[in-house]
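Following up on my earlier thread - several people asked me to post the actual chain instead of describing it. Fair enough. Here it is, all 95 residues.
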Amino acid sequence: MDRIHIRVFPDMATDPVWNDDGGLSVDDLPISQTLRDEIRQWGRLADRMMTGENAPDLPNWDEWEIRTPEFVSRLQEELGDEYLVTPGPEMDTSA
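Reply from S.P.:
Thanks for posting it. Predicted structure:
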């Protein structure tokens, strides 16, 4: 069975979830509203950090990235075996 590969990483002005075709909206994934909201908030923090905003409530990248494995795990759990969720922007070029 071919699984749908979802990657978790930030980029500007988009939710931090991707497939081989590009960025996805978390609204398009069959996950809980709580997880959608948390991922979207996490992505907005990254967006603010990438734009160079200097605000006291912003974490540094190391603090931000520490949550990546948590979201990978939670997404995998909610999406199930039909999906493969991994961190990072690496795209599948085997096709």
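The chain has one domain: 4-87. That should answer part of your original question.
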